[in-house]
Specification:
heterodimer; A: about 280 residues; mainly alpha; MetI-like fold; 13 helices; B: about 425 residues; alpha/beta; Rossmann fold; CBS-domain; 6-stranded mixed beta sheet; binds adenosine-5'-triphosphate
Chain lengths: ~280, ~425
């Protein structure tokens, strides 16, 4: 077969774009990355210095507040189990990463989701980007992350946010679009401004859906910890990763279980928050 | 022998029962609060083209086929008087909701003007329009549209909150509105805890809270069961009388329109086919469509007693001499008759024998016994049991108790027979 149509040089283009971006931005991004990663490290050390029982108790209280004693006892047992496995410090590192990635995802995803819901054109741009972000193998984000942010937790957070943010955007937009037309019409009829309508009617009614999106974002962040460990994120992900490299099945399994336990605890707690947001 | 007519207005003869009833104000005389002039609405992208076709008199189907735009309103004009209940009626898809939503521009009219108290709503900039919606319109929705995440109080105070009213003041106003609709004690509940009827009371309170002059109600009672519905209709009429609101009420139910008792705007395919009171529409349907629309209506519930009055041959005054009165009656050949006081208010009934029994020097009141009476504003249906129970013609009185005339079985039967046989023949 003789192909006369020339190949589209997508790879060359990407390289060129990346080179250009690195040239133009990496000075700034690396500087930011430095200070942020220092800050993350400090925060992590600080939390690791707190006696584990206090953190366990704090989670127990939180779980009790949002749900009840069952969830409270369950999560305290879960954390105690991780402590017992001597995985406390990696767990804290991972937790900090997940919390920061989730916070960043919400900070970017929530406004983006709101705008996408209210403006069809934005939605048409954002939707395919999200599809790409979620279907592209997540290793691919790691490659450009390194020239910008260097090895370490900031690159890991960056890759995690890109991968984990789409559910927050998608479900925020969905939640707002799902508000019954009659209710937005009622808000209009009483002379609300766009902002009043958003804050008093649309967001409160979309809240359960938005919380479900945030829950998914947390889960996806956790699923990224092993991949993030490849670029120096540390934590439970590194436990798994180094176990794989040394073919230590037991240790790898143990770290995997630890990630699963953490995931379940975070999932149950955020699900309860989402359920409590349900209007009656 | 001249019939004594102690009234300050004419009683028409039995043959022409067209009577001006005092106290029944004609809406047309009052000032117009809302003026809708030549408003059209087409839904779709090619609205300019559709509008020209509409102006050229093409019909809905042709416009839909050619341009793919749906005609919602076709050159609609009418006025709403201050303090009246105007009912917009028509079959499903006739454009009632579109009409109502054009009034506060929830739907943007494609052409025409709408004025409220002289202000051109159609020309308002967004900020002015918002202000207008906050202060001039209250709206009630078919499926309540209560905010599920707010308590009843939170729902009712919504409009005031949007206006930026301080919390204590808006709480007070909201609580008053809640009390007004009979929901006292339910303010802390959530909408999901209320029955349909109560939800709509809350919806009504929310619309009333801002004390807007106009209430827009889109099939507000259609989702309620018939009994609750009738209660709500009565209460709305009651509230309207008390608060003097102007109400535009969309309904597809003629019985409801009659119960609310105002003028009716009848729509078909986005255009108005007739405007008038239920009685007038029933009596003179403008088109066969209207005639068909009203043919199932229970005439007796629409027809007012005041329209069927018969004159009383002899009416006695309380200060007359009993013996003389008896003589007069004998001469006129009537055995008993009605007695009024100096102001024309009905006192009761008397007969010749009773008059003759009055001792010399005593007043005529001695011979008067109480008698049945119906209000001129009552429907024939309401009067029927009273008329059926009485041997004689029943006295008809106005709001102040003044005698207007009488109504009897024969008159009622004649009226009903005439109107249901052929509505157009009735006067
Ligand atoms: N948003 C819209 N887009 C397109 N067509 C519309 C829209 N809203 C209404 N229409 C059309 O306008 C016409 C009038 O609709 P409208 O809702 O005013 O009727 P209605 O009299 O209120 O009927 P119903 O009794 O069913 O509520 C209908 O033919 C409908 O198809
Ligand atoms: Mg409708």
């Amino acid at each position: 077969m003789n192909w006369s149509v020339p190949r589209i040089p997508l790879d060359t283009w990407c390289d060129a774009a990346l080179d250009w971006l690195t040239e133009a931005l990496s000075g700034v991004t690396r500087a930011i990355s430095h200070s942020v990663s220092d800050w993350i490290a400090e925060l992590t050390t600080l939390l690791q210095a707190v006696p584990p029982p206090m953190i366990i108790l704090a989670f127990g209280l939180l779980a009790w507040r949002v749900s009840g004693w069952r969830l409270s006892i369950g999560s305290m047992l879960g954390f105690a189990f991780l402590w017992n496995l001597r995985l406390w410090d990696p767990m804290v590192t991972t937790l900090v990463m997940v919390v920061l990635s989730t916070a960043a995802s919400i900070a970017i995803g929530l406004p983006l989701g709101i705008v996408a819901a209210l403006n069809a054109r934005t939605w048409r741009v954002v939707a395919p980007c999200m599809d790409m972000a979620q279907t592209m193998p997540s290793f691919v984000y790691l490659i450009p992350a390194i020239p910008f942010f260097g090895l370490g937790p900031v690159s890991a957070c960056f890759a995690t946010v890109i991968f984990a943010m789409p559910p927050t955007i998608r479900l925020t937009a969905l939640g707002i679009l799902q508000v019954p037309g009659e209710l937005t019409e009622a808000a209009d009829a009483f002379g609300t401004t766009r902002w009043q309508k958003l804050v008093k009617v649309q967001l409160p009614l979309a809240l359960p859906t938005i919380m479900a999106g945030i829950n998914q974002t947390i889960m996806l962040s956790l699923s990224m910890v092993v991949i993030a460990a490849m670029i120096g994120a540390g934590g439970l992900g590194r436990e798994v990763w180094s176990a794989i490299q040394r073919l230590e099945a037991g240790r790898g399994f143990q770290a995997g279980v630890a990630i699963a336990v953490l995931a379940i605890i975070l999932d149950r707690i955020t699900q309860q928050v989402s359920r409590r947001a349900q209007p009656r | 022998m001249t019939a004594l007519v102690p009234f300050n207005f004419d009683i028409g003869s039995a043959a022409s029962p067209s009577i001006k009833m005092p106290g029944v104000k004609t809406a047309e005389k009052r000032t117009a609060l809302i003026e809708v002039q030549d408003v059209s609405k087409v839904f779709g992208d090619r609205s300019a083209e559709a509008l020209t076709m509409l102006d050229a008199g093409e019909d809905r189907a042709a416009i839909l086929a050619r341009t793919g735009t749906a005609v919602g309103l076709n050159h609609v004009s009418f006025d709403v008087a201050e303090g009246e209940i105007l009912v917009v009626m028509g079959l499903s898809g006739s454009g009632k909701s579109t009409m109502l939503r054009c009034l506060n521009r929830l739907i943007e009219p494609s052409s025409g003007t709408i004025r409220v108290r002289g202000a051109d709503v159609t020309a308002m900039a967004p900020a002015a329009l918002r202000d207008f919606r906050r202060h001039s319109f209250g709206m009630v929705f078919q499926h309540f549209a209560l905010f599920p995440h707010r308590t009843i109080l939170g729902n009712v105070e919504f409009g005031l909150e949007v206006q930026g009213m301080a919390k204590p003041a808006r709480r007070d106003s909201a609580m008053r509105a809640i009390e007004l609709v009979g929901l006292k004690g339910w303010d802390a509940r959530y909408p999901s805890e209320l029955s349909g009827g109560m939800k709509q009371r809350a919806g009504l309170a929310r619309a009333l809270a801002a004390d807007a002059a106009v209430l827009l109600m889109d099939e507000a009672f259609s989702a309620l069961d018939p009994l609750i519905r009738r209660d709500m209709q009565q209460e709305l009429v009651e509230l309207q009388r008390r608060l003097q609101k102007t109400i535009v009420f969309v309904s597809h139910d003629l019985d409801e329109a009659i119960a609310l008792g105002g003028r009716i705007v009848l729509m078909k395919d986005g255009a108005i086919v007739q405007v008038g009171t239920a009685e007038a529409i029933l009596a003179h349907p403008a088109t066969p469509y209207v005639a068909r629309f009203v043919e199932h209506i229970d005439v007796a519930s629409v027809l007012k007693v005041g329209a069927l009055l018969a004159a009383v041959p002899i009416v006695l005054r309380s200060q007359e001499d009993p013996a003389e009165a008896a003589n007069r009656m004998e001469a006129a050949g009537c055995g008993n008759t009605l007695v009024v006081d100096a102001a024309g208010r009905l006192l009761g009934r008397t007969d010749i024998a009773a008059l003759r029994r009055v001792p010399n020097g005593q007043g005529l009141e001695r011979a008067v016994r109480s008698c049945a009476r119906v209000a001129a504003t009552a429907s024939v249906k309401q009067a029927l049991p009273v008329v059926a129970a009485e041997a004689e013609a029943v006295a008809v009185v106005d709001e102040d108790g003044r005698l207007l005339g009488t109504i009897d079985r024969v008159g009622i039967i004649n009226a009903l027979a005439r109107r249901s046989a052929n509505p157009e023949a009735a006067s």
